[in-house]
Amino acid sequence: MSKIFKLENGRKIFFPDGKAYRILFDSSDTGAKKIGGLIGVIPAGAKGVGYHYHDNRESILFFLDGEGKALIEGREYDLGPGTVLFVAPKDKHKITNTGRLELRYVEFFTDPPMESDFSEVDHPIAKKRKGEWN
């Protein structure tokens, strides 16, 4: 059954730093069984989620506002408005805001719920550059 809902009624899930957050729309909101989505907001200076991977999940992220970097399998990539990022299963990754404004994106992912497929890992770049990557 199709559904329409408003983001302001979505569940706001805060990152561990208490600043960055996601507005989640997954199976519990939409009834979708194979796909979920979220709006991500990472304020300037916020830490976001650590370097991590998903065993089965595929994600596509559309960046709307702000500037950032993606750390994917140890390589850095610039992010900004109009950038689209595909993250394959098992690829270790992290998104960081490197600008002065909020970094905002829309993400769609397979295999909801979001919390069911998440494994955090350490990475030397993330440890070495604490100001940029943690």
Shape: globular
Strand content: 35-45%
Number of helices in the DSSP assignment: 3
Shape-level CATH architecture: Sandwich
**What percent of the residues sit in helical stretches (DSSP H or I)?**
under 10%
β-strand number = 11
CATH class: Mainly Beta
* Uncertain runs: 128-134
- Average pLDDT confidence is 85
- Tally of separate domains: 1
Order of helices and strands: EEHEEEEEEEEEHH
Provide the CATH superfamily. Answer: Jelly Rolls
Radius of gyration: 14 Å
Give short descriptive properties of this protein:
six-stranded antiparallel β-sheet; 134 residues; Jelly Rolls; globular; mainly beta; single chain; 3 helices
Plain-language structure description:
The protein has 134 residues and is mainly beta. The protein has helices spanning 27-30, 124-128, 130-133; strands spanning 11-14, 21-25, 35-42, 52-53, 59-65, 68-72, 75-79, 84-87, 93-97, 103-110, 119-120. The strands form 3 sheets. A 6-stranded antiparallel beta sheet has the order 1-2-3-10-5-8. A 3-stranded antiparallel beta sheet has the order 7-6-9, with no helix packed on it. The chain has a two-stranded antiparallel ribbon with strand order 4-11. The termini are far apart.
